[in-house]
Design brief:
about 280 residues; Elongation Factor Tu (Ef-tu), domain 3; five-stranded mixed β-sheet; single chain; alpha+beta; Nucleotidyltransferase, domain 5; six-stranded antiparallel beta barrel
């Protein structure tokens, strides 16, 4: 029977106030996951339950839940006592979180809940993650501009009509695509020729923008990574960068090989490939 160990902690500055939840997931001495989540305004008890529920959900990535036992440790005496049935749950804010914890726990072969002091090294690590996240929230920073404008310079005409049609990378297909450049940007094509290698920057307008962690295809160890460490099309600003070869240029139409963009994808820019600095 597989077994994972979970340590959790929650923190709130103000109770209620700015809150964060953190958790560690281990198999033996090997830390599988260490993560933290900021919650906005919440109580300490809500933060404790949020940490537990996040950990219970995330642990399923590392095991077959029906064949895995979990040992959960937390310094929240209230939460552990409620989960073990010693204390009743009377707070309307905690009731749905308690019920969610019970539902998530039922997916596993067994779950034990144990109270440990804050001095526990693993709980202390979770406490540090929470407070570090809250410290970062309190740092005054230069406000980001409310709007950054990108103007398409053209549009892709591609044999790939649906997301499932497109290859993971353009180099995996020999099917040509064309890019129609808008008239007002005609002069920008001067100097490009057939045979040139260029980078095409597109706006993947059909990609999801609220996913920050994915499992990359073909690179890495198969573990979940942040999108900024991958080439995944899902990202906050779905800008693609693809190296293609120009097959021909006819007026405002550029035919290229190696582009994975879907039909009618907006093109943001074209930049030349320079072997001496891009390799």
């Amino acid at each position: 029977m597989d077994q994972l160990t979970i340590y959790t902690d929650g923190a709130s500055r103000g109770n209620p106030g700015q809150a964060a939840s953190a958790w560690l997931i281990l198999r033996g001495d090997n830390v599988l996951e260490s993560d933290v989540l900021t919650l906005g305004r919440a109580t300490n008890n809500v933060a404790e339950y949020s940490a537990l529920n996040s950990a219970l959900k995330c642990a399923a990535k590392y095991c077959n839940p029906k064949e895995t036992r979990l040992a959960v440790f937390s310094d929240s005496n209230l939460m552990i006592s409620q989960l073990n049935g010693s204390y009743a749950v009377r707070s309307p804010d905690l009731t749905p979180l308690f019920e969610k914890a019970k539902r998530l726990s039922a997916d596993y072969a067994g779950v034990t809940f144990t109270h440990v002091p804050r001095e526990n090294a693993y709980v202390g690590s979770c406490d540090w993650l929470c407070n570090n996240a809250l410290d970062l929230l309190s740092v005054k920073s230069i406000p980001a501009p409310k709007k950054i404008e990108c103007v398409p310079i053209g549009i892709v005409h591609s044999p790939f009509k649906e997301i499932g049609d497109a290859p993971k990378q353009g180099r995996f297909s020999d099917k040509p695509s064309t890019i129609t450049i808008y008239e007002k940007y005609r002069d920008g094509l001067s100097g490009l020729s057939s045979g040139d290698k260029v980078f095409i920057l597109c706006w993947f307008d059909r990609s999801e923008r609220d996913i920050l962690k994915v499992k990359p295809h073909g690179h890495g160890d198969g573990e979940t990574r942040g999108v900024f460490a991958t080439r995944a099309p899902v990202r906050p600003n779905p800008i693609s960068l693809t190296l293609v070869t120009i097959l021909s240029i006819d007026n405002l139409v550029i035919t290229v090989k190696g582009l994975e963009a879907l039909d009618n994808t907006p093109v943001l820019d074209i930049k030349p490939y320079y072997g001496d600095i891009d390799c």
